[in-house]
Specification:
five-stranded mixed sheet, two-stranded antiparallel ribbon, Helix Hairpins, Four Helix Bundle (Hemerythrin (Met), subunit A), Heat Shock Protein 90, 7 strands, 10 helices
């Protein structure tokens, strides 16, 4: 897993975690807001109604007590009045910590009005120790203060009703906002999960599937090559022994003919054909049992320059120029002789694609490629030509053993080259365009800082 993918997965994980926390927090806040509203609507928060009712009931009771005292002049009524009025005063003071805001303001007004009520009652009502003067008392003289207290009780109820309405509106707005937060976060969470799934599928599952397909193709190809290798080794062995005997007898006969005689020329032609057969047999054997590479650390310049010096003179007659383009001096590990064999094969194919008057570029450059199931730094040795390109129907079978578009070819050149490169842990790839040319790239893992690849 590369660093970019790790960073994206970490970012997605953090985003999903934050959104999940946001949804949980919003849900908890909504629950608390609903609970708070329920509490406000409960009996505990209907206290203002109870206070208002209690004050009104007590005022009416005190007023009735005064009326009864006015009618009967019973000292016990006066004592009861004084006791109940004192208790009500203390009760009002005890309710002040329960309320706040407008409700507390109205309760303070009730407290002040009650004080006025008590003062009026005390000053205007003749007490029992005043004797006959009590007959001059008229209850109507303090009804005004009692009515004021009753109206203030109604105001306290109205104030509490308004507070509840304001709380309900605020709670509705808060719950509505939290609902949008939850839905928005849920939408973002689903989107993040979708993006995460897409990223995981595209960056992890798809490459694994491609790797599986590639591995299956490689295994099938290796099995096919192994079977062909066994066949090729058997055929080559069976052919080499008779060829050796024929060549030996032919050499002995050749000495008995004059050098310029027709028989000598026939023997010479036969010998050349035997040599060609031996070369084909050698190709079969190399395909069947490619040698293990003797790796050495090198740059791309040396093998490319050696191939250029070797091949350039023989291509000059056909008007084909070979140029060198060294873009990197990064090192890699390869067998010099096997690598030279691969490059010569690619250059010869490029020259055959051009035929006459063309250009071949031998290039060394650095890059990134997928080797061994992971992306890594590589050194790429390229042979680029401006020939006729490779037809689409040929591209599919280009590396198949014994497939050739040449009349005299064995079809093993590119197969052997591909097997050599694979033994180096590299790849042999190509890009082609009809009538514009082909570029073959030999890809090797670049050596890291400590000299190991």
């Amino acid at each position: 897993m590369n660093r970019a993918l790790k960073f994206r997965l970490t970012a997605f994980g953090l985003a999903i975690g934050v959104l999940a926390c946001l949804i949980g927090g919003a849900a908890y806040a909504s629950w608390r807001e609903v609970s708070r509203l329920q509490t406000r609507l409960s009996t505990g928060h209907l206290r203002s109604y109870e206070i208002a009712d209690h004050v009104q009931d007590e005022i009416l009771e005190l007023n009735s007590r005064l009326v009864r005292y006015d009618l009967q002049q019973d000292p016990r009524d006066w004592e009861t009045y004084q006791h109940e009025s004192s208790n009500l005063s203390k009760w009002i003071d005890a309710q002040k910590p329960v309320l706040s805001g407008t409700e507390l303001d109205v309760l303070n007004q009730i407290d002040r009005a009650y004080a006025v009520f008590l003062t009026a009652a005390t000053n205007r009502i003749p007490r029992p120790d005043q004797g006959q003067e009590a007959k001059s008392f008229h209850i109507e003289s303090i009804q005004k203060e009692a009515q004021t207290l009753l109206k203030l009780g109604d105001q306290l109820e109205d104030a509490h009703r308004q507070v509840l309405e304001d709380s309900l509106v605020a709670s509705q707005k808060s719950v509505s906002w939290l609902r949008w937060v939850i839905f928005g976060s849920l939408f973002l969470l689903l989107g993040s999960l979708a993006l995460l799934s897409t990223t995981v599928y595209r960056e992890m599952i798809t490459p694994l599937r491609m790797k599986l397909v590639e591995s299956k193709a490689v295994i099938e190809r290796q099995e096919k090559l192994a079977s062909l290798g066994v066949l090729a080794a058997g055929v080559a062995h069976e052919i080499r022994n008779p060829l050796t005997a024929v060549k030996a007898r032919l050499f002995s006969h050749q000495r008995s003919f004059a050098r310029n005689s027709p028989e000598y020329q026939d023997v010479h032609v036969i010998g050349e054909e035997i040599n060609r057969l031996e070369s084909i047999v050698q190709d079969f054997l190399q395909f069947a049992r490619p040698g293990e590479p003797k790796l050495a650390e090198m740059t791309g310049e040396k093998p490319l320059r050696e191939v250029l010096d070797l091949m350039a003179p023989q291509f000059e007659k056909a008007g084909i120029q070979i140029k060198l383009d060294i873009q990197t001096h990064e090192t890699f590990r390869a067998d010099p002789q096997q690598l030279k064999q691969v490059l010569i094969n690619l250059v010869q194919n490029a020259a055959e694609s051009i035929e006459r008057n063309g250009r071949i570029v031998l290039r060394a450059r650095s890059g990134q490629a997928r080797l061994g199931g992971q992306n890594r730094a590589v050194v790429i040795l390229e042979t680029e030509d401006n020939g006729r390109g490779i037809p689409a129907e040929v591209q599919k079978r280009l590396f198949d053993p014994f497939f050739s578009t040449k009349d005299t070819g064995t079809g093993l050149g590119l197969s052997i080259a591909a097997r050599i490169v694979e033994k180096h842990g590299g790849l042999l790839e190509f890009q082609t365009q009809p009538h514009r040319g082909t570029t073959f790239g030999v890809i090797f893992p670049a050596c890291i800082a400590n000299g190991r690849s």
